[in-house]
Inverse folding.
């Protein structure tokens, strides 16, 4: 190979290396810029449950509040967790829209109470007002703190995790 051809070959190789590095730099810049204009989803608050999540000021929290019913709408109960964030016992009042249910739940200081099928605390809902797929707007009160019109979803046994509690409700209701 002549010295001219070798010099030309080196120039082409150098040009290809520089072009490749330029493309790599562009690719890195473009993909890195994505996170600059799109917020990281793990830092965004979301509700990782099927039910409603409510914070009543600093005193009480409600977690995964939902209404379970069977597809025939013969039984329905409220399901969820009430949390007392204070060092004194408190009462949480739940009132469903159209007076479909109303209950006072005592929550010990610094503790949580699970409500629902098979639990010590059960709140029965008028099944006629709880069609699967709908929501029941609910008022939740603790002392002077209140959340009105909380959309509480009504779910049936379509999802596997709700089949057993619904069967438990039906057995305890004798249907």
């Amino acid at each position: 190979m002549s010295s001219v051809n070798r010099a030309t070959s080196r120039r082409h190789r150098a040009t290809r290396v520089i072009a490749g590095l330029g493309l790599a730099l562009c690719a890195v810049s473009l993909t890195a810029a994505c996170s600059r204009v799109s917020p990281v989803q793990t830092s965004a608050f979301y509700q990782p449950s099927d039910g409603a999540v409510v914070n009543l000021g600093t005193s009480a929290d409600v977690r995964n509040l939902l209404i379970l019913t069977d597809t025939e709408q013969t039984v329905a109960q409220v399901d969820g967790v009430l949390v007392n964030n204070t060092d004194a016992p408190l009462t949480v009042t739940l009132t469903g829209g159209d007076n479909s249910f109303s209950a006072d739940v005592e929550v010990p200081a610094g503790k949580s109470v699970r409500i629902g099928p098979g639990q010590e605390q059960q709140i029965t809902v008028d099944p006629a007002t709880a069609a699967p797929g709908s929501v029941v707007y609910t008022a939740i009160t603790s002392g002077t703190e209140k959340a009105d019109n909380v959309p509480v979803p009504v779910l049936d046994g379509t999802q596997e995790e709700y089949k057993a509690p619904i069967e438990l409700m039906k057995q305890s209701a004798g249907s």
